Structures are given as structure tokens and as C-alpha cells.
Amino acid sequence: MKKLIFLFLGLSLFSCSSGGTDDNFGSGGNGGDGNTTIDPFKATVNGISYVFTTLNNTNIADASGGIYGNTYFLIKGNKDTGGSKGNVSGKVDTKKYEIKLAIPKSNVVVGTHNFLNTIQPNEYFADLDVTGVVPPQTVVTSTGFIKITSYNATTKKIVGTFSFNTTNGSTTTITNSITGSFNYVLP
Questions:
Q1: Which site in 26, 39, 79, 166 is 20 to 30 Å from 97, CA atoms measured?
Q2: What letter does residue 67 receive in the DSSP assignment?
Q3: CA 65 to CA 74: how far, in whole Å?
Q4: In which region does residue 132 sit, left (phi positive, over 0), alpha (psi from -120 to 50) or beta (all else)?
Q5: CA angle 49, 129, 148 (to 5 degrees)
């Protein structure tokens, strides 16, 4: 009977042990090739934290650069915040956030890259779109930075953080404050 108890305890301990690391950016069981990273795009918008969905549910950046053109890698995340009380009439809105990070293909280097309200050639940039709200919200990037904390030129893995503010475009009053992190692979 004692042998049976020790066998059960041993198997229980073995089954609870972990053979890998827990870095919140795990390899996803795919050999660490980068396309199944857990939660590769996280952001806090106006004090509320979200995990954003990514393009094709992978963490591979868009080589076309999207709206920024083919000289940039585009890292993009989307978040549908679900229904919330909207305007006075009681209509239910569905606020959606889309964050876009433009990484210049000619300038992928570790460091802090500051930007202002418009994208400049071969410079970093971030943007926020807010849709699904009544009345519509105009969002214009004012200032911010993208910090590349690590980049492996062999595996093309890029890890970093970002922080930027937006205005409504007609005043300098900050309307949104955004911070976040990303763990992607450049194509």
C-alpha cells in the first residue's frame, strides 16, 4: 500500500513539472519558429489592458507595410471591446481599436525611436484607429516612441514596447494614451 501511495505521489509531481520556460512569449510548441507566440501584441488603452488579435492569428509582421508602403514592416493588432452603453438614446456601441506600428525595413535596430504626429521616411511610427462609436471619434497621433528591446537578425525575431498619445486633430488635448508590447517575426 505504501508503494502505491509513493507511486501516485511521484506521478503527480512529475505531471505537474514543466519542461520549458514560462516567459509569456512561449514557443507555442512549434519549435520556437515565431509564428505561434502566445499573446504577441498587448496594449493598454486609456488605462485598460487588452490582448489584441493579430493578422492571421500569427506574430509575423506584414511585409507589404500596409498603408505605410513597402519600405516598412507593419505590426498590427485589433481589439473589439464588445458592447457598451453609447449615446443618450441607449444605443449599444461596439468600440474597436486598431493599433499599427510601422517599422522601417532599412532601420531595424535596438533602441528607442521617437516620433511626432506624421510618419517620416525611414522612421518609426504608431497609429490608433477607433471605430464603432457614436459619435465617430477622430484620432490623430501626437507623440510617442517605439523601443526595440531585442532583434535577432538570423531568426528575424523583434521584441519591444511602444507608447504614444493621440488628440482629436483639432486641439492638442490628449484623447487617448496607449502603451504596449510586441513579440513578432519580421518576414
A1: 26
A2: G
A3: 5
A4: left
A5: 60
Give the separation between CA 101 and CA 142, rounded to whole angstroms. 14
**Grid cell for residue 50:** 487588452
Strand pairing report for 53-54 and 48-51: unpaired
- Would you mind telling me the total number of residues written for the chain in this entry? 187
61-65, 79-83, 110-114 — which is least confidently predicted? Answer: 79-83
CA distance 45 to 164: 10
The answer to whether 125 and 115 are in contact (CB under 8 A) is yes
102-115 CB burial, b ≥16 within 10 A, e <16: bbbeeeeeeeebeb
Collapsing DSSP to helix, strand or coil, 22 comes out as coil
The answer to whether the CB of 97 falls within 8 A of the CB of 130 is yes
Calculate the alpha carbon distances from 180 to 146, 159, 164, 167, 185 in Å: 10, 11, 9, 18, 17
Is the pLDDT at 121 greater than 50? The verdict is yes
Rounded-to-integer distance, Cα 45 and Cα 177, Å: 6
What are the two backbone dihedrals, phi and then psi, of residue 86, each rounded to the nearest 5 degrees?
-100, -120
CA proximity to 46, closest of 126, 116, 130:
130
**Going by DSSP bridges, is the β-strand pair 72-85/48-51 parallel, antiparallel, or unpaired?**
unpaired
- How many angstroms separate the CA atoms of 120 and 141, rounded? 13
Query: Whole-model pTM above 0.85?
Result: no
* 77 bridge partner residues: 54, 99
